[in-house]
Fold this sequence. Notes:
By secondary structure, the protein is an all-alpha fold. The chain folds into two domains: about 5-25 and about 140-210, Endonuclease Iii, domain 2; about 35-135, Endonuclease III, domain 1 (Orthogonal Bundle), CATH 1.10.340.30. About 55% of the residues lie in helices and about 0% in strands. It is built from eleven helices and no strands. The chain has helices at about 5-20, 35-45, 50-65, 65-70, 75-80, 90-105, 115-120, 125-135, 145-155, 160-170, 180-190. Bound molecules: iron/sulfur cluster. Iron/sulfur cluster (SF4) binds near residues 153, 205 and 206. The site of iron/sulfur cluster has 13 residues, from loops.
Amino acid sequence: MAENLTQKKARALEVIKIFSAEYGDADCTLDYQDPLQLLIATQLAAQCTDARVNLVTPALFEKYKTARDFAEADEAELSALIRSTGFYRNKTKNIIACGKKLVADFDSEVPKTMEELLSLPGVGRKTANLVLGDCFGIPGIVVDTHAGRLARRMGFTKNTDPYKVELDLLKIIPTEQQSMFCHQLVFHGRKYCDARRPQCGECPVRDICPKVDVKL
Ligand code: SF4
């Protein structure tokens, strides 16, 4: 029989309990010092690993410290610094445009609402939710490919569209745990629930995970 919402919520709480014991100190895996740095680092992380981004950002943030610095950046110089993160031409254009918008419309500060964040070039819901949760303590669900895969395997959503996954998780993950849960999903994906070879036999949530579409 299909699991109803109440049952799903109860199971999600069990998963959160286990995750909190396993990954109590889970955190954003991008290095940053302030909201602007997280905003930029998250844009660089599109189609790239956080580890690679963390290799690039020290020199980048040494050179560009404020929204105005990014707004006035020379395209070729900025490109050269972020080239190894892939799709660097688009990323360069978006980061410069984002800097300009921050200067023009937000007094060079990173805004604190979803709507305002989404108005910035190159910023989608994933980035906005991450910045809101980690920099401003405003809970939200951050859905990237990994979080989406895990949520589907764990039977918390059937959707592949990230926004629909976000809406499904919002219904079952308590508000105050949402940001941490998403970090824990990333840690869990790395440790046990790899895209190609999930280690279900060793996984601490194996008894309450339906393992949807996992070939054992
Ligand atoms: S039991 Fe398997 S599919 Fe479920 S979370 Fe663990 S590793 Fe992933």
